[in-house]
C-alpha cells in the first residue's frame, strides 16, 4: 500500500471566494441584498458564518489583468463582469480576521511579476494580524493581460516561470528565517531590543532576484505562512513538491485526481518529503437541494446569466487564445498546438478536450462553444444532490484519492446562500459520519490543516 493510503486524515473544507461576485452571481437568487462588492461587511459576515461551520479556510485567487483576448477587446469582460473587478484582498482579510478567531485565509500573489521581499514582508504582517491564520497561494501567471500591467509585452516561457517561482519561494523562506524565533529580547531594564547575532542578511544573488535581507519584521506566529500551489503540469507538480504545504488540485475526475496524487507522492519522496504531510484540496462545485428534484433544478440555474460573449471572453482569457477566430471545423490537436505555442502552457479547456476526445477529433464551431459554455460554468463537474448524496460522493472521492486534504468549494450560484447551505446542510452530515473532525483543534491554520 502506498503512503497516500496510510493513516487517513480528516477531510478539510475551504471556500473559494475568488469569483463570488462575478459572472452574474451577484444577480442570482440568494445573493446579497442591500450590499454589493466590494463591501467589506459582506466578507466579514461570511467569515463569521464560515467559522460557525468550522470551515478551515477562506481562499482568494487573483489575477491582475482585465480579460482582453476575445476579439482583442475588454468590452465583453467589462459588460458581463467576466473575472472582473478584482481587488487586492489583503485588507479584506485583515478585516475578516478582526471578527473571527479560528478560520484561516488564503491569499494569492504571482511569482512571475511580484518581488519576494515585498510579498514575504506583507505575508509576515498578515500572519501577525490574523494570529497565525495565513496561507500563501503562489502562482505562475499565464495571461498576457496580467503581464502588460507589469511592463511585459510577452510571458516568460513555461519552464522559466516555474524556475522563477522556485527562486521566489526560496528567497521568501530565507527571509522568513532571517530573524531567528528568539532574536527579540526586549529587556526593559537595559533597553536592549534584540540580539544582533540572531538577525541575518541572506545576501541572495540569483538568476531572477538579488536580495540582501534580512526581513525587517519580527517572526510571525506560524514562522512561514502555509504555502499553497496549484501546478497540474508535470513541471508544476515537480515544483510544488519542493516547497508546498498544501496543493490546490483540479476537481471533477477521480481518475485524474488519483494520477495527480500518485505523481505528487513520487515527487515528494524524491525531494525527501513525506507525502502524508502534503494534502490536496480538490476544486469542487456543489449544488445542494433538500430533495433530488430541488438539487436538479438548482443546477440548471448555473447555465443562466451567461451569454455567448461572456463565454467567449472567459474561455479566451483563460486559454490565452482568441477563440472568436476559430473556423467552422476545429481539429482539436491542431488548435491545442497553437495555444501551447502562444502561451507555453499545456493545460486548459482545449487540452481537456484533447485528453477526452483525442487530438484528431474534428469538432464543429457550434459544438465547441456548446462544450465551452458548460466548461465555463463547470456544469459537468458540479456535484448536485441532497446533503446525504453529496456526503456519499465526497467521502468516496476523499478515500479514493488518499484521505489526505479535502475540498476547495467554489461558488456556482450565489453568495452567501450557496455557502450557507453547505454549512447548515452538508457539514453536519459530514461531521455525523466522522469524516470531518473537531473544528479548529490547533492554534494556527497550519496546525488545523494537519489534523
Could you describe the 3D structure shown?
The protein has 451 residues and is an alpha/beta fold. The protein has a single domain, classed as TIM Barrel, CATH 3.20.20. It is built from 16 helices and 13 strands. The chain is globular.
Q: What is the molecular shape?
A: globular
SSE pattern, N- to C-terminal: EHEHHEHEHHEEEHEHEHHEHHEHEHEHH
| Number of DSSP helical runs | 16
CATH class: Alpha Beta
Q: What is the count of distinct domains?
A: 1
Counting DSSP E segments of at least 2 residues, the number of strands comes to: 13
Structural class from helices and strands? alpha/beta
Percentage of β-strand residues: 5-15%
First and last CA, distance: 21 Å
* CATH topology grouping: TIM Barrel
| Biggest beta sheet summary | 8 strands, parallel, barrel
For the record, what is the CATH homologous superfamily label?
Luciferase-like domain
Unreliable spans are: 1-5
Helical content, roughly?
A: 40-55%
Question: Mean pLDDT, nearest integer?
Answer: 93
Question: Could you name the key traits of this structure?
Answer:
single chain, 451 residues, alpha/beta, TIM Barrel, eight-stranded parallel barrel, two-stranded antiparallel ribbon, 16 helices, globular
Summarize the structure.
With 451 residues, this protein is α/β, with parallel strands linked by helices.
How are the SSEs placed, and which strands pair?
Elements: E1 12-16, H1 40-52, E2 57-60, H2 75-80, H3 90-97, E3 104-110, H4 116-129, E4 134-139, H5 144-149, H6 158-176, E5 204-205, E6 210-211, E7 226-229, H7 234-243, E8 246-249, H8 254-270, E9 279-288, H9 292-300, H10 308-319, E10 329-331, H11 332-343, H12 349-357, E11 362-364, H13 365-377, E12 383-385, H14 387-400, E13 405-410, H15 417-432, H16 445-449
Parallel strand pairs: 1-2, 1-13, 2-3, 3-4, 4-7, 7-8, 8-9, 9-12, 9-13
Antiparallel strand pairs: 5-6, 10-11
Amino acid at each position: 500500500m502506498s503512503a497516500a493510503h496510510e493513516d487517513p486524515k480528516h477531510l478539510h473544507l475551504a471556500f473559494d471566494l475568488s469569483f463570488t461576485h462575478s459572472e452574474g452571481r451577484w444577480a442570482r437568487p440568494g445573493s446579497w441584498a442591500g450590499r454589493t462588492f466590494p463591501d467589506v461587511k459582506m466578507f466579514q459576515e461570511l467569515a463569521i458564518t464560515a467559522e460557525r461551520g468550522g470551515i478551515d479556510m477562506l481562499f482568494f485567487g487573483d489575477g491582475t489583468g482585465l480579460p482582453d483576448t476575445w476579439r482583442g477587446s475588454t468590452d465583453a469582460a467589462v459588460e458581463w463582469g467576466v473575472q472582473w473587478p478584482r481587488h487586492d484582498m489583503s485588507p479584506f482579510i485583515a478585516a475578516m480576521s478582526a471578527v473571527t478567531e479560528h478560520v484561516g485565509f488564503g491569499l494569492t500573489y504571482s511569482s512571475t511579476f511580484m518581488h519576494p521581499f515585498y510579498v514575504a514582508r506583507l505575508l509576515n504582517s498578515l500572519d501577525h494580524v490574523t494570529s497565525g491564520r495565513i496561507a500563501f497561494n503562489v502562482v505562475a501567471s499565464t495571461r498576457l493581460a496580467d503581464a502588460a500591467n507589469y511592463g511585459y509585452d510577452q510571458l516568460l516561457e513555461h519552464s522559466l516561470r516555474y524556475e522563477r517561482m522556485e527562486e521566489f519561494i526560496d528567497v521568501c523562506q530565507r527571509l522568513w528565517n532571517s530573524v531567528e524565533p528568539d532574536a527579540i529580547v526586549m529587556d526593559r531594564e537595559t533597553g536592549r531590543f534584540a540580539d544582533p547575532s540572531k538577525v541575518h542578511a541572506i545576501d541572495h544573488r540569483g538568476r531572477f532576484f538579488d536580495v540582501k535581507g534580512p526581513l525587517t519584521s519580527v517572526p510571525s506566529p506560524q514562522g512561514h505562512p502555509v504555502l499553497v500551489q496549484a501546478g497540474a503540469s508535470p513541471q508544476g507538480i515537480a515544483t510544488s513538491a519542493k516547497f508546498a504545504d498544501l496543493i490546490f488540485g483540479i476537481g471533477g475526475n477521480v481518475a485524474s485526481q488519483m494520477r495527480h496524487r500518485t505523481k505528487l507522492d513520487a515527487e515528494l519522496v524524491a525531494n525527501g518529503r513525506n507525502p502524508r504531510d502534503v494534502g490536496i484540496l480538490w476544486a469542487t462545485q456543489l449544488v445542494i437541494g433538500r430533495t433530488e428534484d430541488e438539487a436538479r433544478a438548482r443546477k440548471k440555474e448555473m447555465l443562466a446569466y451567461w451569454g455567448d460573449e461572456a463565454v467567449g471572453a472567459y474561455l479566451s482569457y483563460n486559454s490565452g487564445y482568441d477563440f472568436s477566430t476559430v473556423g467552422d471545423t476545429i481539429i482539436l490537436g491542431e488548435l491545442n498546438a497553437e495555444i501551447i505555442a502562444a502561451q507555453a502552457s499545456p493545460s486548459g479547456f482545449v487540452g481537456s478536450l484533447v485528453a477526452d476526445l483525442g487530438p484528431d477529433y474534428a469538432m464543429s464551431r457550434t459544438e465547441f462553444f456548446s462544450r465551452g459554455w458548460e466548461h465555463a460554468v463547470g456544469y459537468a463537474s458540479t456535484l448536485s444532490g441532497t446533503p446525504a448524496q453529496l456526503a456519499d460522493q465526497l467521502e468516496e472521492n476523499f478515500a479514493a484519492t488518499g484521505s489526505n486534504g479535502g475540498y476547495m468549494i467554489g461558488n456556482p450560484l450565489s453568495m452567501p446562500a450557496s455557502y450557507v447551505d453547505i454549512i447548515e446542510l452538508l457539514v453536519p452530515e459530514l461531521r455525523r459520519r466522522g469524516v470531518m473532525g473537531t473544528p479548529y483543534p490547533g492554534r494556527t491554520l497550519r496546525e488545523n490543516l494537519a489534523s
